[in-house]
Amino acid sequence: MAIERTLSIIKPDATKRNLNGRIVTMLEAASLRIVAQKRIHLTMAQAGVFYAVHKARPFYDELCEFMSSGPIVVQVLEAEDAIAKNRAVMGATNPDQAAPGTIRKAFALSIGENSVHGSDGADTAAAEIGYFFAGLELVG
Ligand code: ADP
Ligand code: MG
C-alpha cells in the first residue's frame, strides 16, 4: 500500500464546541500524520467552490452556509492508505449510521453538521489539498 495524502477538515460545529484536540487525537491514533494544518474562516463563495461537486444537491446552500458559519481547521493527513484510513475513522456521513468509535459517532450533531470532512479518492484529495495549501506548506 502506497503512502498517500488526504485533505481533512474540522468543521464549524466542532471548532465551536472546542473539539479540535479530541478530533486530532483520534486521527493520530489511527496512524494519520498531520503534515499541514491551519485555521481559516471561509466565505460563502469559497465554500461553494470547495463543494461545487454537490451544486445540484438540495442541501448545497445549507452546506455552504454551514461551512462558512465559523472557523474551520484544514489539514493534510499522511499515511499508508490515508484516504480510506481517514474515512474509516470519520465514520458514515449520517451519525445515526456511524460505527462506534468513529469521530462522527462521537461528535456529529446531524447529517449536515457532522464535524469532519475527508477526501473520497486520490483525484479529489490532490485537488482539495491544492485548494487550501501551497507545496511549501506541506511538511512531511
Ligand atoms: P461525506 O462528507 O461523508 O463525504 P458527502 O460528500 O455525501 O459526504 O456530502 C458532503 C457533506 O454534505 C456532508 O459531510 C454533510 O456535511 C453534507 N450533507 C450530505 N448529505 C446531506 C443531507 N442529506 N442533508 C444535509 N447535509 C448533507
Ligand atoms: Mg464527500
The largest sheet, given as strand count, sense and whether it forms a barrel, is: 4 strands, antiparallel
Shape: globular
Bound ligands = adenosine-5'-diphosphate, magnesium ion
Mean pLDDT: 98
Low-confidence runs: none
Main sheet: strand order: 2-3-1-4
Our measurement of the CA-to-CA distance between the termini, rounded to an integer number of angstroms, reads 18 Å
Helicity level: 25-40%
Strand proportion: 15-25%
Report the order of strands and helices. Answer: EHHEHHEHHEH
Structural class: alpha+beta
Number of strands: 4
- Provide the gyration radius in Å: 14 Å
Number of helices: 7
Describe the structure.
The chain is of the alpha+beta class and 140 residues long. Helices cover 39% and strands 20% of the residues. The protein contains 7 helices and 4 strands; from the N terminus they run βααβααβααβα. The chain has a 4-stranded antiparallel sheet with strand order 2-3-1-4. The longest helix is centred in the last third of the chain and has 11 residues, at 122-132. The radius of gyration is 14 Å and the shape is globular. Bound molecules: adenosine-5'-diphosphate (ADP) and magnesium ion.
